[in-house]
Amino acid sequence: MNLAMVSVAALALAVLLSCVTQINVGIVSIALAWIIGVYLGGMQVKQVAAGFPVDLFLTLSGVTLLFAQAQVNGTLDRMTHHAIRLCRGNAGILPVMFFLLGAALASIGPGNIATAALLAPAAMATAERMRIPAFLMAIMVGNGANAGSLSPFAPTGIIVNGLMDRIGLHNVALGNWFSNFAAHATVAMVGYLLFGGIAQLRRQDTGRAEDDAVAPFAREHWITMAVIAALVVGVLAAKLNIGMAAFACAAILALTRASNDAEAIRKMPWNTLVMVSGVTVLIGILEKTQGIELFAGLMAKVSTPATVTAVVAFLTGIVSVYSSTSGVVLPAFLPAIPSLMEKLGGGSALAVAMSMNVGGHLVDVSPLSTIGALCLAGVADGVESKSLFNKLLAWGMSMCVVGAVFSWLFFR
Questions:
Q1: Could you tell me the pTM of the whole model?
Q2: Residue 308 domain-assigned (yes or no)
């Protein structure tokens, strides 16, 4: 067995472990990279360590720290409650509002998982109180959070844009965000129409979903919102480095005592940071050992230039049902695109990348994913919870096919 096959087998093992265990595969990936690189490939340790994504790690750390501070001091929670209050308890509008709120919050920086963790308890409790179908609400809040996941300010967007930049796809951040948003908005609207949204609009017994007494914004919340707004403007208008700018914003919040930075550091998603960084180190070994070429060849065998977008969307969707989209699946698949295009003899690398992004994210409302599980956890009744699990699982698996069809139709 040559070194390329060994490295691909190591990647397959890491993906498999991410599907069937709770082990952080970033740790396993670094260990496998060290063994393969040093003891089988004759590399120096520093050559293996060179694959560690320093820039990506700093960027993710800065952004997640800033929004952990916004969560710790209650800013995001206050924003959510004020947004819910605007709906005045209209049962038909509330699911749409949760979709839009999820997309907006995820897009400005917290990302899809943090946004779902913030919104899902409130959304599912509101659904129970207002007699809105739990399945409908889960679809709306889950797809809303995922719709903003590829924002250039969100952790997954930062990961994806960095990976695409490495393979020569530059300045595509807004296109990535929009295509992913469009896909999730489409399936959310279809879900809204199919699973009770219209019936909720026709109801006459609308009421208050939230108490009138919503706490006003305090000093620390205004400072936090101003700092986040400054970050967005600085990155878009002044082209500031988002990671370093986020650290500066986090420092301002700490110095003004607008948030407890020690508590925020504890709430940072260190598991994801280690996972992404470790898998990236292993991908670096694949690149050095021609493993990427072999991996691309395997995908090329089941694709043609006309079907490649559908095939890769389906494959990333299937794996993403059981594994981390941002931490494992996309870091594994995206680097293979240039070789895949070469072996197919043509096609759009950008279209294939967008297909992977959409295919990987559409399935994430499955109860086997974090976002689906968060929605499921918000349902107190045991019978309803079991029913919701089955419905979300069917929905998530069906999205493998939906993502493939969407990608085949719109990405060429």
A1: 0.86
A2: no
